[in-house]
Amino acid sequence: MKDSRSEEEINICQHAAAKALELELNDLESSIRSRFKSPQLERFDDAQTHWQQMTESDCKIEADFYEGAPIYPAIQSECLQRHYQDRMETLNKYVCPEPNLGNGCEVNDPVPVVVLPAPADKRSKRFR
């Protein structure tokens, strides 16, 4: 992102960053699903469906402010990145609910806790 100069380059970088986070989130979801049994699994899947619908709606609203602008896809991708990062932070609690209690789940757990990447560079002020 730091070296991106055109709207097209920014769009490509933001989309790639969002896609990478989406793949990490999918892996984390799969790991969590393998731990749950019915009815917890059904509640989790229902929550994920609702979260996904809310995320899509929220990012659509945010991006609509830029509809028709070349930077529209980057705005949508940046929104998705924030939602994916927030959701991974929440889902990591399902993997290791109390890591600060010294219970060792972050060390002994077979499912790795996802380390969230630093937020993507902010878009240029000229696009705000």
Molecular structure report:
This protein is mainly alpha-helical. The chain has one domain (7-110): Up-down Bundle (Substrate Binding Domain Of Dnak, Chain:A, Domain 2). Helix content is 64%, strand content 0%. It is built from four helices and no strands. Helix 1 runs parallel beside helix 3. The radius of gyration is 17 Å and the shape is elongated. Mean pLDDT is 82; it is low at 108-113 and 122-128.
Give the topology string: H per helix, E per strand.
Answer: HHHH
Spans of at least 5 consecutive residues with low confidence: 108-113, 122-128
Number of domains: 1
Number of strands: 0
Shape-level CATH architecture: Up-down Bundle
Distance from first to last alpha carbon: 17 Å
What coarse outline follows from CA principal-axis ratios? elongated
**Helix segment tally:** 4
What name is given to the CATH topology?
Substrate Binding Domain Of Dnak, Chain:A, Domain 2
Oligomeric state of shown chains: single chain
Considering DSSP H and I runs of 4 or more, what fraction of the residues is helical? Answer: 55-70%
| Percent of residues in β-strands | under 5%
Explain briefly what this protein structure is.
The chain is mainly alpha-helical and 128 residues long.
Top keywords for this entry?
128 residues, mainly alpha, Substrate Binding Domain Of Dnak, Chain:A, Domain 2, 4 helices, 0% strand, disordered C terminus
